[in-house]
Design brief:
- The structure is a single chain.
- Strands 1, 2, 3, 4, 5, 6, 7, 8 and 9 form a 9-stranded mixed β-sheet that branches.
- By secondary structure, the chain is of the alpha/beta class.
- It is elongated and about 70 Å long.
- Helix content is 46%, strand content 17%.
- Helix 7 packs parallel to helix 8, helix 10 packs antiparallel against helix 11 and helix 12 packs antiparallel against helix 13.
- The C terminus is likely disordered.
């Protein structure tokens, strides 16, 4: 006899996070919303985490075990295949849920059938103590997705009918950070995004995070390239490297020529989007213009010619940025003059 359906499957993949998983599980079990199952997909943990979950002994917990480690993406896919809920709520094995998270996300998803995935703000703890805010609307989220995780995957609730109808799955060959972002990009092809504007997920920051100690520029370049591919944006590695400049991530030192190339790339990207309507035009161009404007200070601090080229190419006349650039030039000349008088200071 098949098991009865539930409103929500909470999906947690587990691999060697035994020090944290009991706290994560108990935060799910303490939710005020009760029509759920907690599906723990263990990916051959070797640190006792699986035994810890089994020892909790709550009938709402269902466990899928693996004899070999297959990676986070494959483990997540096994969870999506086995889920019974109308919605799948994600929680990483080292994070926590607020008691009202499921109730609030279910109410939101029920009221907005056009939304295929909703996230929440995060309350970071551990090595960081802050609230991480996320944009609220589909237009805002979609317009920012080319450069980062505009929805936080461990806070997401996903409409399982969309996952099943379109066979959306995580890429099992993607073994670096960003698997979750790419999965959410694919989901967005079939429905709208949203984010509840309160911190309903507690996000643990520390050495156990997948991206800890990694080469951020290299990882982000691969992520941008794959996002381009999924969204069928005509771009390659050069465009990805230019795009990273908007987040002050540089594969080479910034120069005036690179700034000019970035400006040209943004123009091509906007023109292409006006034809394809891949992103909401007004919100997308506003986001790109904001990132372009903010990049001035980083560029001016590292290369005066790059800063001047940015100022020359920018729309309008910004006296504040011109003043900043002149101050940088003055400080640079003062430092060079002092160095000529006293070579020991350089």
């Amino acid at each position: 006899m098949p098991a009865a359906p539930v409103k929500v499957t909470v999906l947690t993949t587990l691999y060697n996070k035994g020090a944290y998983v009991e706290e994560a599980v108990r935060s799910v079990l303490a939710n005020t919303f009760t029509d759920f199952e907690l599906l723990v997909v263990d990916d051959a943990s070797s640190d006792g985490g699986l035994e810890t979950v089994k020892a909790i002994g709550d009938p709402r917990i269902r466990i899928l075990e693996s004899t070999v480690n297959t990676g986070r993406a494959s483990a997540a896919n096994r969870g999506y295949d086995a889920a019974r809920g109308e919605y799948v709520a994600v929680l990483d094995a080292d994070d926590l849920m607020m008691p009202e998270r499921l109730a609030k996300q279910v109410a939101f998803m029920d009221a907005h059938p056009e939304v295929c995935v909703s996230g929440t703000w995060l309350k970071a703890f551990g090595d960081m103590n802050t609230v991480i805010e996320k944009p609220a609307t589909d237009a805002e989220i979609r317009s920012q997705m080319l450069l980062g995780l505009t929805l936080s995957y461990p806070s997401c609730m996903i409409r399982r009918s969309v996952v099943q109808a379109h066979q959306v799955r995580c890429d099992p060959d993607w073994l670096i950070p960003g698997m979750d972002h790419l999965f959410l990009v694919k989901l967005g092809l079939y429905g709208k995004y949203a984010s509840l504007q309160e911190p309903l997920t507690l996000y643990r920051v520390g050495a156990q995070n997948m991206d800890h100690g990694r080469d951020r520029v290299s990882d982000r370049r691969l992520l941008v390239l794959e996002t381009f591919r999924l969204l069928e944006i005509p771009a390659g590695q050069e465009e990805a490297d230019l795009h990273l400049m908007l987040k002050n991530l540089h594969t080479v030192a910034p120069t005036a020529a690179r700034v000019k190339a970035l400006d040209a790339w943004l123009g091509r990207l906007k023109a292409d989007n006006r034809k394809t309507l891949r992103f909401p035009v007004e919100a997308f161009e506003k986001e790109l213009d904001m990132l372009w404007s903010r990049s001035f200070y980083f560029l001016a601090d590292r290369n005066l010619k790059a800063g001047w080229e940015h100022l020359r190419l920018s729309k309008g006349f910004d006296t504040g940025k011109l003043y900043y650039l002149f101050n940088r030039l003055r400080r640079s000349r003062t430092t060079k003059g002092a160095a000529r008088k006293n070579p020991s200071i350089v």
